[in-house]
Amino acid sequence: MNVLELSEQEIVRRNNLNELRALGIDPYPADEYPTDAFSTDIKAEYDDAAEEKRQVCIAGRIMSRRIMGKASFLELQDSKGRIQVYVTRDDICPGENKDLYNTVFKKLLDLGDFVGVKGFVFKTQTGEISVHTQELTVLAKSLKPLPIVKMKDGEVYDSFDDPELRYRQRYVDLIVNSGVKETFLKRSAILKTLRAALDEAGYTEVETPILQSIPGGASARPFITHHNSLDIDLYLRIATELYLKRLIVGGFEGVYEIGKNFRNEGMDKSHNPEFTCMELYVQYKDYNWMMAFTEKLLERICIAVNGSTESVVDGKTISFKAPYRRLPILEAIKEKTGYDLNGKSEEEIREICKALNLEIDDTMGKGKLIDEIFGEFCEGTYIQPTFITDYPVEMSPLTKKHRSNPALTERFELMVNGKELANAYSELNDPIDQEERFIEQMRLSEKGDDEAMFIDQDFLRALQYGMPPTSGIGIGIDRLVMLMTGQTTIQEVLFFPQMRPEKKIPKDSADKYAAIGVAEALVPVLQKAGYNLVSDMKEVNPQKLQQQVGEVIKKYKLDIEKPSVNDVAEWIAKIASERAQTEPGSSMPNVSDLSKI
């Protein structure tokens, strides 16, 4: 790395790294370091009355230091928390050579470095449980300074709270911001509880293809890629549904998959292009059974994660205690808008949308029109868990028709905190009906609906072999984690959410500088001084520019000859000359005049 790309602190740390090596200390040792305790456990298990001092071996990152002559304190952060460590010169340097304390510990170690500590547990005079160091080992050198958060009189200073930086550099976020790790530990607990419940019920966890020849199981815009060897286009899956139902055809009682789905759509506080979903399919069940199973499952998860059936999200207390309200979608729309859509044609519903001032277009079929009304006037109003049921057939191409009304389907969506959390059906297992639904989806696609489903002929063939009555559900894991941890944005529950590319400062190539006479070695010096483009120098005083270049060379101790004022004046004159040629009317300075400055 070019030294000019480093900050002053980074240069100091690299110099410290080299000095450690010069002392014969490997800053990145390969040996196993045999830790046997964690910070939080040491504090929890401390016995004030114990006759013998407990010996421990711990390791972690230095988060703060207080050097006080021959004795010092540091705060060590391990994977579970933080603990104070007491270090004295004579304890870690029992012989005549005191370099480990005087040079390594006091001068060459930096905040963020990893060290190993062997010693005994004790309580300081102020009552803080600490580790008295008897042996100190350097385990890893940190070359970038951490944004250390400071507290004074209850006020937080230098906090690392810019979402753009936090999500892009999650590794730093986890180090310096307490509570972030807790969210992801809860996410892990949610998945463990979910798996345990499904395994106890006797269902089998499976894996299905992520690369698919046909993106099916949902209405969404897919990501497209190309397989070179087969010379075919493939799609990242938008759902696991059609493959899981093939396994039900094959004879499994119940199958589930927890995995990534991908949708080439927008990003916001509740959507990410890749997201985690759990889909479950169980034979001989219907959507009524699935509602009862789901509310008990979520109640169990909430208790496991939060210790109760309640979670607080954005100041709202949400109760996951079963049972949940059940409300047909057309009744929900009537309740919120006053319009009864029962028996209405596509054109009639289109007119209602216009009366409600909804933005619609000609590509939208009956199902999408109803979805627009529900999304605008109903969805956001359901804070407590609510099953919205009995969707019109046009909205549900993979769902069995309602047993008492063929215009509806046996489907529900679970709404919590104004968002969909789960989607479930009594699965359509009539292959002829399914084919007709797929054909209708193709009609919508031809009208311009780029989210309409493809016809999956192999799935139709599987249904023709016979699929038993089945109920299936998909639960959005990321949204579930948001609800259980009280987070309001999906980015807070994803380790590495999708981000826009980092903005880079535009810089001219060395060739453009060479065209005005700048030596290649001086290009990074000029750019460090702030002249990233040749045009940035066009109106600068040559003496000032020469002085700035000289300061950079001196500061970074570069073995580069400083240009003369005349050299700089000639660069500026050439810039002006090129500008005069491309911009008629521009005045060109006299080079001889500039050389006298």
TrEMBL record:
Main location: cytoplasm
UniProt keyword annotation of Transport present: no
Compartments, as annotated in UniProt: Cytoplasm
Protein name from the UniProt record: Lysine--tRNA ligase
CDD domains, alphabetized: LysRS_core, LysRS_N
Domain Aminoacyl-transfer RNA synthetases class-II family profile, residue spans: 187-501
SUPFAM superfamilies according to UniProt: Class II aaRS and biotin synthetases, Nucleic acid-binding proteins
Residue sites binding Mg(2+) 2 per the record: E420
Signal peptide start and end residues: none
Assembly with partners or alone: Homodimer.
TM ranges: none
Gene Ontology cellular component list: cytosol
EC number(s) stated in the UniProt entry for this protein: 6.1.1.6
Species, as recorded: Paraprevotella clara YIT 11840
NCBIfam families per UniProt: lysS_bact, PRK00484.1
Coiled coil region boundaries: none
Binding sites annotated in the UniProt record for Mg(2+) 1: E413, E420
Gene Ontology annotations of biological process type: lysyl-tRNA aminoacylation
Molecular functions (GO terms): ATP binding; lysine-tRNA ligase activity; magnesium ion binding; tRNA binding
Keyword flag rRNA processing: no
